[in-house]
């Protein structure tokens, strides 16, 4: 049934899950095309006037009368048709579908269903669906509007609720499932694995060298491998990046380096409407200030969040240019139509991070100097959540050889960064955010371990015990060995404190439970589990997405 709440459902979910593909382009167009802005303003005024009227009239809330089966079949067919890929094609497609819809409507009620399908097709490619829905509500016959809304809700619900049917990709041999008490997510094996077998390989969404290795030229700034011979060094890189190969250089540049630390234009030719108004000097200055801050304060997580935002923008702008060989620059089909990076990220658990005003300004200035207007998305709230989510989920990259020269951190490792490495952080060269591995729970008696056998950021998850299909897969977030100077009780207490300080949860693993001694429990600084999941995600997953509140709890 189409009701106001389902309209809100669609609106809030569509907004928070990222309008994606054309957002950057259209946003620019809107800001810069006076005619477009005038038209939008006029339409908005019309809508505001009618909205008050409609509210008082309390529109009928009956369903469209079309059966869910019929709607489902129509939706499946429309999905199969695919969507235009370039902005120009999208605009053409949008106009054509709206024109068709109008023609069908003019032919009378018998043609309302095909009319609604055309308007729905147009809605799917429009970058601001909420605005369009408001226009539809005021201009389309009620019956047509209801069909469009029912289809839109079905589309969004499938996408949001069906997320874990599509992710992780099936070739990774694992699924994300709810835990037995439904309070969290766990990673489960889709088949049996023998001891020592590789369960899956995963590339990071973003990764970075430890701060002390940045700019040194000893390790690749993209794959983090130790560089043999002369590194590839771009002339104008503000972070002094060095690469082990041209492939790494190109990938890094395409994914985040150019936007953050390079000077090439960010949008594809023709899509920027002359927006690259800031000079290269402005861009360099903003970049240098950000780099100086990150390096002097050791803010690796802020750097990674910058990369994350840059990569999100790069993914969306790459979609604007179908001629680009997208797959070459991306990992695991991350640039795909159904889910954006934002969709992936917002499902990860986190503890809010601390970000100062200066930090936000420095990062926003880098973004603004490359792509004016984009700095608007770097809000205090978003940054605190992103930094929290990043530091909560990254995994330390420890190549087989590791390193012995890592500076001893002044802060406790778990305060400075939580890099989830079973070897401790002392040997790592950097860290990466791995979207699938992020779901692995900690166990003090884990059955799997992340390894970096190719000496790059590619994570290979290896079974450290035989694993049966359906078993939960776990890793150690901290060093779970018993040190020579420790009793079992002391070792248990050490790892539990480290977990509580770093990840704010009380370990409930089988080993901790079995090693509990009577009267021994002590205050480890946390009562239960203080990690959060984005409120909108929780609501959507519990089938109650109607609220407009989209912030974390
Ligand atoms: C990095 S996330 C792992 C994925 C997470 N379980 C989820 O629901 O998305 C870490 C969170 O998992 C849970 N967790 C992981 N290992 C745990 C353990 N040994 N005992 C209790 N909770 C654990 C805690 O809620 C913690 O906040």
Automatic annotation (TrEMBL):
GO molecular function list: mitochondrion targeting sequence binding; protein transmembrane transporter activity
Key words of the record: Membrane, Mitochondrion, Mitochondrion outer membrane, Protein transport, Transmembrane, Transmembrane helix, Transport
Biased composition (Low complexity): 52-62
One GO biological process term: protein targeting
Region (Disordered): 47-68, 401-423
Compartments in which it is found: Mitochondrion outer membrane
GO cellular component: mitochondrial outer membrane translocase complex
Keyword check for Transmembrane: yes
Cited InterPro entries: MAS20 (IPR002056), SET_dom (IPR001214), SET_dom_sf (IPR046341), Tom20_dom_sf (IPR023392)
Source domain of life: Eukaryota
SET domain mapped to chain residues: 172-478
Transmembrane portions of the chain: 6-28
Start-end of Basic and acidic residues biased regions: 402-418
Mode of membrane association: Single-pass membrane protein
Family: Belongs to the Tom20 family.
Entries under PANTHER family matching the protein: MITOCHONDRIAL IMPORT RECEPTOR SUBUNIT TOM20 (PTHR12430), TRANSLOCASE OF OUTER MITOCHONDRIAL MEMBRANE 20 (PTHR12430:SF0)
Name the record gives this protein: SET domain-containing protein
Taxonomic source organism: Ceriporiopsis subvermispora (strain B)
């Amino acid at each position: 049934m189409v009701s106001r709440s389902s309209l809100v459902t669609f609106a809030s979910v569509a907004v928070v899950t990222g309008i994606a593909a054309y957002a950057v382009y259209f946003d620019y167009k809107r800001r810069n095309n006076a005619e477009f802005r005038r038209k939008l303003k006029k339409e908005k005024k019309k809508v505001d006037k009618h909205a008050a009227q409609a509210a008082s009239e309390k529109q009928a809330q009956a369903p469209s009368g079309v059966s869910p089966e019929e709607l489902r079949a129509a939706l499946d067919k429309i999905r199969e048709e695919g969507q235009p890929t370039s902005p120009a094609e999208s605009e053409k497609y949008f106009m054509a579908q709206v024109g068709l819809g109008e023609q069908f409507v003019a032919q009378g009620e018998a043609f309302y269903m095909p009319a609604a399908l055309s308007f729905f097709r147009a809605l799917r490619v429009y970058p601001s669906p909420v605005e369009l829905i408001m226009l539809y509500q005021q201009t389309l016959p009620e019956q047509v509007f209801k069909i469009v809304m029912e289809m839109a809700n079905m589309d969004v619900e499938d996408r949001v609720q069906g997320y874990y049917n599509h992710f992780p990709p099936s070739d990774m041999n694992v699924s994300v499932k709810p835990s037995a008490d439904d309070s969290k997510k766990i990673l489960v094996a889709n088949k049996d694995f023998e001891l020592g077998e590789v369960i899956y390989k995963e590339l990071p969404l973003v990764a970075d060298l430890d701060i002390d290795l940045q700019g040194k030229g000893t390790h690749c700034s993209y794959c983090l491998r130790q560089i043999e011979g002369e590194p590839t060094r771009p002339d104008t890189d503000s972070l002094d990046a060095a690469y082990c190969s041209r492939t790494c250089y190109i990938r890094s540049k395409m994914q985040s380096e150019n936007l953050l630390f390079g000077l090439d234009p960010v949008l594809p030719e023709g899509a920027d409407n002359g927006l690259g108004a800031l000079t290269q000097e402005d861009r360099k200055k903003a970049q240098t200030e950000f780099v100086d801050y990150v390096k002097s304060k050791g803010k690796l997580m802020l750097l990674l969040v910058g990369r994350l935002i840059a990569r999100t923008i790069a993914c969306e702008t790459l979609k604007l240019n179908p001629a680009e060989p997208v797959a070459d620059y991306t990992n695991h089909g991350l640039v795909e139509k159904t889910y954006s990076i934002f969709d992936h990220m917002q499902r990860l658990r986190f503890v809010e991070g601390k970000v100062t005003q200066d930090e936000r300004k420095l990062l926003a200035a880098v973004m603004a100097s490359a792509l004016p207007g984009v700095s608007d998305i770097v809000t205090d709230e978003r940054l605190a959540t992103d930094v929290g989510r990043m530091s909560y989920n990254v995994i330390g990259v420890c190549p087989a050889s590791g390193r012995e020269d890592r500076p001893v951190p002044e802060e406790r490792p778990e305060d400075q960064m939580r890099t989830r490495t079973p070897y401790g952080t002392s040997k790592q060269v950097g860290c990466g955010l791995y979207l699938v591995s992020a779901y692995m729970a900690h166990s003090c008696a884990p059955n799997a371990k992340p390894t970096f056998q190719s000496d790059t950021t590619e994570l290979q998850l290896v079974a450290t015990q035989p694993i049966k299909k359906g078993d939960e897969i776990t890793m150690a977030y901290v060093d779970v060995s018993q040190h020579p100077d420790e009793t079992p009780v002391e070792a248990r207490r050490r790892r539990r404190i480290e977990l509580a300080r770093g990840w704010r949860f009380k370990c409930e693993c089988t080993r901790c439970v079995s090693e509990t001694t009577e009267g021994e429990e002590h205050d480890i600084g946390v009562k239960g589990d203080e990690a959060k999941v984005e409120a909108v995600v929780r609501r959507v997953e519990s089938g109650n997405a109607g609220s407009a509140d989209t912030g974390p709890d």
